[in-house]
Amino acid sequence: MKGLDSSLVVLLCALLAESQDTARKAACRTVPGSPGYPSAAEWDAFNATVFGRLVTVVPSAKFCTTLPGGACTDDQWASALFRSTIPGAMDQVNWEQGYDLSPPSLCLRNGTTCGQGDVPLYSVEAETVEDIQAAVKFSSAHNLRVVLKSSGHDGLGRSTAPNSLLIHTHNFQNISFQDSFFVGSKDMGSVVTLGSGVYAHTLYEQGKANGKIAVGGSAATVCNAAGWIQGAGHSAISPTFGLGADNALEFDIVVASGELLKVNANSHADLFYALRGGGAGSWGVIVSVTFQAYPTFNATSSVIILGAENDTVASSLATLHAQHIFDWDSVHAGQYFWFLKNGTSADAPSILLLNTYMPNTTTSQSVALLTPFLNASLALPGVALLSQNFTYSDINDALYQADDSVGSNFVFGSRLIPAATYRDSPATIGKAYKQLLASGATTILGHLVAGGKVAENAKISSAVHPAWRTAKAHVIVTTEWDDSASLAEINQIRHFFQKVQVPIFDEMTGPNAGAYSNEADVLEPHFQTTFFGPHYAKLSAIKRKYDPEDLFIVGAGVGSERWDEWGLCRV
Ligand SMILES: Cc1cc2nc3c(=O)[nH]c(=O)nc-3n(C[C@H](O)[C@H](O)[C@H](O)COP(=O)(O)OP(=O)(O)OC[C@H]3O[C@@H](n4cnc5c(N)ncnc54)[C@H](O)[C@@H]3O)c2cc1C
Ligand SMILES: *[C@@H]1O[C@H](CO)[C@@H](O)[C@H](O)[C@H]1NC(C)=O
Ligand SMILES: *[C@@H]1O[C@H](CO)[C@@H](O)[C@H](O)[C@H]1NC(C)=O
Ligand SMILES: *[C@@H]1O[C@H](CO)[C@@H](O)[C@H](O)[C@H]1NC(C)=O
Ligand SMILES: *[C@@H]1O[C@H](CO)[C@@H](O)[C@H](O)[C@H]1NC(C)=O
Ligand SMILES: *[C@@H]1O[C@H](CO)[C@@H](O)[C@H](O)[C@H]1NC(C)=O
Ligand SMILES: *[C@@H]1O[C@H](CO)[C@@H](O)[C@H](O)[C@H]1NC(C)=O
Ligand SMILES: *[C@@H]1O[C@H](CO)[C@@H](O)[C@H](O)[C@H]1NC(C)=O
Ligand SMILES: *[C@@H]1O[C@H](CO)[C@@H](O)[C@H](O)[C@H]1NC(C)=O
Ligand SMILES: *[C@@H]1O[C@H](CO)[C@@H](O)[C@H](O)[C@H]1NC(C)=O
C-alpha cells in the first residue's frame, strides 16, 4: 500500500466493493431481504405500471382455505380448469412443495401448517404485451428469479420456483383462423394463431366451428402456444401432419431485453429454430404462435380395454402389441396405449387401454384394422376383452376433452422408442414391460404419435430431437404417492426412474437414448443430450444471444447447468 495516494486507495476499495457486489449479484438472484430486492414501494410502483395486475401468490392448498366454505371440493382440487383460476397452482401439486428447501417447506391439502414451498411470491396476471415487457424489465433490473406459466400443466415443475416472480400468460386467449398467411413473400395458406393462454380444447371447439383442425395435444387445458410447442408437441394426428413444432410458422415473443420480436423462418431464424423443440421456458415470454391449419375431417376414435391376469400375461400382450403396432400405418393412426396395474405384486392384474384415432376411416374399416391384434390378444391365455367402443365424428370432437383430472403427486420418466425395436425385436418390448411392472410401475403410458409424417419431416431444420424422427412411440412410466408419504419415501420415488427404470428402458432403446423434454424426468443427468441430442451447442449459443443474463432458466433446460435446482444461484 505504501506510496499510494490515500484517495486512490479509497477509490480502489470502492471499485473492489462494487465488483464484489456485481459478482454477488451475478451469482444469485435477489430474494426478500437481500440487497437489490425491490422494496415495498418499488413493488407498488411496478404494480401501477401493470395496471394493478400484480398479485401475491399462495400454494393451492392455502388458496382453498380462503374459499367461502374453507375448503376445495375433491372435484375442484382435481380439476385443471378450477386450478387454473389459482395463480400459484400447479396441476401436479407436488411441484408446489419445497421438499429440497432447508428446512423443507410444504403446504399439503388439509394440512395443519403451510409453507410457501416452491410457489412464486408474486404473479403478474398479464393481459397485454406491455404488461409482459414491464415484468421482464422489472425482473432484469432487480435480478429477480422469473418463472413463466400458462396452464401449470408442466410435468417437470418448470413453471414454478421459490422466491420468484411469475409472469402468467393465462389471459392471452386470442384465437383466429386465416385462409392465407404470409411468411415473407410466401403464402403458407390456412393457419390458426393462438394466444399463449389458449387451451387445447378451445382450439378444437373453434376448429370445428371454422371447419379446420390443427395439430394439438390430447388434453383439455395444455396450452399449445406455450410449453407444448417449445418441447416439440405431439398429437394423435402427428403421424398424419407431423409434430407441433413442424407446424409452427411464426412466434410473437418478448425476449430478455423486453423487446417484442416476430420470429419466423426469415426473421430471427436462429430463435425460430430454438423455439421449435429447444425446450419450454428458456427463450422468452411467448405472446402467440401461428400454426398451419388443415381442413377438418372425420375420424374413428376407439377405446378398447383388455384385461391381463398377471405380469406374465401383460408382458405377452405388450409383445403382441409391439408386433401389431405397424398394422395401422396405412391410415396414419395415432394411439395411446396404457398398461395400468392394480397393485404391485407380480400376480396383480393389469388392463391395457387402447385409445386409437384413425383419420378418414369409417367405424367398420377401423374395426377391421384392429381385429388382427384383438383376435391374437384374445387367443392369449389370461387375456379378456373388458370393453370396446368405436365413435365416428369430426376429429375436433374426437380430440376434445372437457377438463383434465389432476391434483395428485407424481413424477415420471420417458424414452423415445425406436421404430427399429418394434420392427426387429418386439419381444424386447414385452420383456422390458415385464421388468417395469416388476419394478413396481403401475402406469406405463405409450404414445403412438411418431412415424408417418413425423419421420418424413426429418428434413426440417429445428431443435426437435432427431430421435423423434426414427421413433415409433414415446413411452412414459409414472410413480405416484399420496400426502402420507414421508420425505425419505418421496426422495426415493423421485430418483427411482434414474436408478431402476432407465436401465430397463435402455434394453428397448440402446444406451443414451432420446426423450421428449415435456414429459420426462427433470433429474435426467445428461439432459443436454437426452432432450436435445446433437443440438445443444447450437441452442446454447442462441441462448447466449437472446438471454445473455439467463433470465429464463428452467430445470433441465438450456443453460440450467449454470444454476442450482431452483435457478436462484449460479453453481
Ligand atoms: C393431462 C396432460 C396431457 C398432456 N398431453 C400432451 C399431449 O397430448 N402432447 C404433448 O406433446 N404433451 C402433452 N402433455 C405435456 C405438455 O406438453 C406439457 O405439460 C407442457 O409443458 C404444457 O405446457 P403449458 O404451457 O400448458 O404448461 P405450463 O406449466 O404453464 O408451462 C410449461 C412450460 O412452458 C413454459 N411456459 C409457459 N408459458 C409460457 C409462455 N407464455 N412463454 C414461454 N414459455 C412458457 C413454462 O416456463 C414451462 O417451462 C400433457 C400434459 C398433461 C398434464
Ligand atoms: C396491485 O394493485 C391492485 C389494484 O390497486 C391491488 O388490488 C393489488 O392488491 C396490488 N398488488 C399487490 C401485490 O399489492
Ligand atoms: C381434504 O378434505 C376434504 C374435505 O374437506 C376431503 O374430501 C379430502 O379427501 C381431504 N383430502 C386429503 C388429501 O386429506
Ligand atoms: C387480441 O385481440 C384483440 C382484438 O383483435 C386485440 O385488440 C388485442 O390486441 C389482442 N391481444 C393480443 C395480446 O394480441
Ligand atoms: C383392484 O384390486 C382391489 C383389491 O384386490 C379390488 O378391490 C379392486 O376392485 C380392484 N380394482 C380394479 C379397478 O380392478
Ligand atoms: C380426408 O379425406 C379427404 C377427402 O378424400 C381429403 O381431402 C383429406 O385430405 C383427407 N384427410 C386426411 C387427414 O387424410
Ligand atoms: C377374429 O375372430 C372372430 C371371432 O372369433 C372371427 O370371426 C374373425 O374371422 C377373426 N378375424 C380375423 C381377422 O382373424
Ligand atoms: C399368469 O396367468 C396365466 C394365465 O392364466 C397362467 O397360465 C400363469 O400361470 C400365471 N402366471 C403367474 C406367474 O401367475
Ligand atoms: C362410446 O364413446 C362415446 C364417445 O366418448 C360415448 O359418448 C358413448 O357413451 C360410449 N358408448 C359406450 C357404450 O360406452
Ligand atoms: C362426419 O361425421 C358426421 C357424423 O358425426 C356426418 O354427419 C358427416 O356427414 C361426416 N362428414 C364426412 C365428410 O364424412
Descriptive overview:
It is built from 20 helices and 20 strands. The chain is of the alpha+beta class and 571 residues long. The protein folds into 3 domains: 129 residues, Uridine Diphospho-n-acetylenolpyruvylglucosamine Reductase, domain 2, CATH 3.30.43; 121 residues, Uridine Diphospho-n-acetylenolpyruvylglucosamine Reductase, domain 3 (2-Layer Sandwich); 234 residues, 3-Layer(aba) Sandwich (Vanillyl-alcohol Oxidase, Chain A, domain 3). β15 and β16 form a beta hairpin. α11 packs antiparallel against α15 and α15 packs antiparallel against α18. It is globular. The N terminus is likely disordered. One 2-acetamido-2-deoxy-beta-D-glucopyranose binds next to loops.
End-to-end separation in angstroms reads 34 Å
Strand arrangement within the widest β-sheet reads: 17-14-16-15-19-20-18
Segments where pLDDT lies below 50 for 5+ residues? 1-6, 8-25
What Rg, in angstroms, do the CA atoms define? 25 Å
CATH fold-type name of the largest domain: Vanillyl-alcohol Oxidase, Chain A, domain 3
CATH top level label of the largest domain: Alpha Beta
Indicate the mean pLDDT.
95
